[in-house]
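ok trying this again, last paste got cut off
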Amino acid sequence: MGYAAARGGRDAIEAAERLIARDRAESAAPPLTDDQLTDRMRLAVDRVMGEGGLWEPGLAAAALRQSEGDPIEAAHLVRAYRSTLPRLAYSEPADADDLELLRRIVPAYQRPPGPQLLGRTTDYTGRMLVTDPTSSPSGDDPHHPDPLDAADDSETTGAVPSVDRPNRAGRLLDLLRELDLVVDRRRSDDPEPVDITRHAVRPPAARSARLAVMARAETGALVNLWYRNILGPDGYLHEITLGEVRHGRLPVDVRHPDLDEPVTIGSVRVTEVEAIEDLDGIGEDRTRFDVGYGMCLGHNEKKAIAMANLDIACERDGGATALEQSVLMTTDGLDATGFLEHLKLPHYVTFRSMVERKMAQRSDLPDPADAPERTTA
């Protein structure tokens, strides 16, 4: 009986897998290619790479296609594949100032050190649905831009930095430090960052562990956690200002085994955010600001902004609440989804034991019919 039930369950699972394969093969639409997904669905591919913890656009596109567009399932596929890869080398520490800028905005300052680059963004585009994939929301022909848009502006431009424009841009944080307006949380020592893929992290955790967890967190979960924790230690709304929002290509260097010197093997696109917060709580230095940091793979400004603000929130909280625990243990999309998905698996044995406990407890209760009758005077 037990074997037959197991065999029947296996047959049903295999039939479900065949149904997926058949529906994909018989679909009237042509199969999606990796190039189509990486070019046309770049933000979805970037999100899968970030939450999967692996930079490989082709694999992320394949995972997105296999998961039928479910980004969490795609990230699960990427992370599972990543766990099978050998570690051939460790990269050298990357300097964020080496970022080849594709986009850089400084909302807090009109004329910051370095250029403002609007880059590729929908921040200023009307949220109007366009059903024709060849047209733009503004109605302009993307292949024939307005001549007025071609004018170069040394302070603000939507163009990608050209070869004659320096890649290294000054930071607003440097200016604030010169004015002695920011708390300096830099350390004199240089601790190794926590490798969260090999060591489980629990509060209290090093700042590198918190940032690494948030870099792989599910974007919606992280944004939601930030939104629920935008009150300062004194219970009032945080005064949040973004100092830097950057997107660009960050070189990846490894040490050559023969030459014993760093060599660049490629680059990854990252999003970097520095968030400024007004210190106005009890016991805080109200003459200065604090700055939070966030960096994640791909172009994902929502996640990086939430990261930077939660970085400050954890610092200001100081372990007084469960905020750090929530950051470390409730924002991973794979963990949360894995628990949710397992609820769809058979639980009839567990549920039957629950029913039997209820019936046993009921049998121990006195019969209401045996209770003495109440009389009134």
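PB: full thing came through this time. Confidence is low (pLDDT under 50) at residues 146-166.
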